[in-house]
Design brief:
Layout: H1 4-25, E1 29-34, E2 39-44, E3 49-54, H2 64-94
Antiparallel strand pairs: 1-2, 2-3
Length: 107
């Protein structure tokens, strides 16, 4: 059995690796889209919105409600992809750690 010092050192190492992985998530970009690509939202895997692209045909006053709905849908699509990318990166980072079944990181 490992000593308490060994366990604490391992926990500190895991915490440092998690912090490094979290920083890396801001470098991974995903793109959410709606309306067949007429509205696109680019975000980092950490959830930071980087940019938005709107097809000019949607910039008509009569299309206001549809544009608002498409923007919301594109944001939600980008957020879902950001979460998936984040989970994939965290899974890579924790792959070799001897964690008990069902234990989730970060704490």
């Amino acid at each position: 059995m490992k000593s308490l010092e060994d366990i604490m050192a391992m926990a500190q190492n895991v915490q440092a690796e998690l912090a490094k992985a979290q920083d890396g998530l801001d470098q991974i970009e995903v793109e959410g889209a709606s309306g067949g690509g007429m509205v696109k939202v680019k975000a980092s895997a950490k959830g930071r919105i980087i940019g938005i692209d709107i097809d000019p045909s949607l910039l008509q006053p009569s299309e206001k409600q549809m544009l608002e709905d498409l923007i919301v849908a594109a944001f939600n699509d980008a957020r879902g992809k950001a979460d998936a990318a984040s989970n994939a990166e965290m899974a890579k980072m924790t792959q070799g750690l001897p964690l008990p079944p069902g234990f989730k990181l970060p704490f």
